[in-house]
Amino acid sequence: MLNIQKKMSNPFLALLGLPATAVGFALSTQIAALSWILSNKYGLDIHEVAFVWLAGPIAGIFGQVIVGLISDNVWFMGGRRRPFIMIGGLVSTIAFLTLPHIRSISNITGITDIILIASIIALFLDLSINVTFNPARSIIADLTPEGKVRTSGFVWMQIISGFFGVFAYFLSMVFGNEMLLYIAAGIVFLTAVFPILFIQEKKEQTQDQADDKEKFGVLQIFKEIFPLYGFLVFGVFSLFYHFFTDALAAWHNPVLIGSLIYSVAIGVYIILQGLKHASNKNEFQKIMLAHSFTWVAFQSMFILSGFFIENQILPNIGLQGITANWFAEKLTGVTQTSASSVGNIVSLGFFILNLIGAIFPLILQSIAKKIGRVKTYISALSFSAIGYFYIAFFSRVELDFYIGMFLVGIGWSAVISIVFAIMSERVNPAKMGLFMGVFNLAVVLPQMMSNGVANVIKATGNHQLLYIFCGLLITTSVIFWIFVKEPESSGTKLNVPSGGH
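Now predict its structure.
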């Protein structure tokens, strides 16, 4: 064991966060390049792009829960989490190398359906990301004690991952999205495979883990996620809607609205139950549902922002004056087109988002020591709501989009750091991998709702609705978070029984 691991020093926490950095860089690359390459290189429409992105949630449903469950109970290649991190990194590398060659793959295989090939590659990419992400987060919880050290572990994870994410968008602006895919293949391989070799996992189980005999099957997991049934129903509907659009068109909006109404109603029910009988299980359910609304907003933004830029901002500005084009033109000497300008503006906006996401966790950590993690999280997430509404109602030129992304980035910095520290203290530590996977369903199932947002925008032709929806969804999440109790390790003593998980 490395000496820095024995001391739980900051260098070790940084090393511990590198596997998650590989996932963060992969996600940033996917966000920067996937929608752009599908719409501009292969000519897919907005609803077709959104359908390809459904591969991610589908992969997450199976990948994270199953891998989380398995990794809690196995030991090979020197660890519980290590083999999944290494395998996931390798598959991500291969997926990035194939994305620019969808047309060639079509010619070689004889499969003419570009959407099918893109969906399969996206499925493998997302499956590899999901296979890696759960163990990469779980290993932080495994090897750090509850409280400040664990929070620091997740903060370090976000700082390093955030800066690599910023780097991905910078590379996108300078070299273009196709070259970014090749660079990502190398970086993801290096950061996923090699750092984990220097981290020693605990083979010995704690007494609580050894004594834990509770079995979890598919039925039990299905019961655990009952707050997310609304998102699950619409996700399944979205798959059928893509193939039977005409037959199901009249049902789309009623199912979408019904799913959202169910999710809000079940949230109210869970809050009322918590007021009567406080428990860790109830707290976990509240956090999971609040987190789900957040991810409908962020995933919709990631997928559809390029279409917003193309229709709401690009017509108001000339190509010569676009700030985002400066990097590519100065460093490569290549004149930018309308299509590349859209990609550059999106990349610079997400560059700002991730830069704030990388810097602010340290600020939020200091604030959390004074007012608690939950209140800090609520405050940060509120800035995202403000940012979304600002873009929706005031975004006319390039700078407006960047101002909005700055505000959204404050909330983003908390979403991918603090929330895991809070959640991890509400579940059974003997099944950390499993519950990380279950909690991830609060990410992947809501992501499928983004397909509904895309369909509404396509039907109305109003791209402003994207950020209006995002603002409303984040506001709903903030309201639910208000009823989440502060964990005891934050320094605020709570009368919450330990039963449930």
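The two ends are 31 Å apart (CA to CA).
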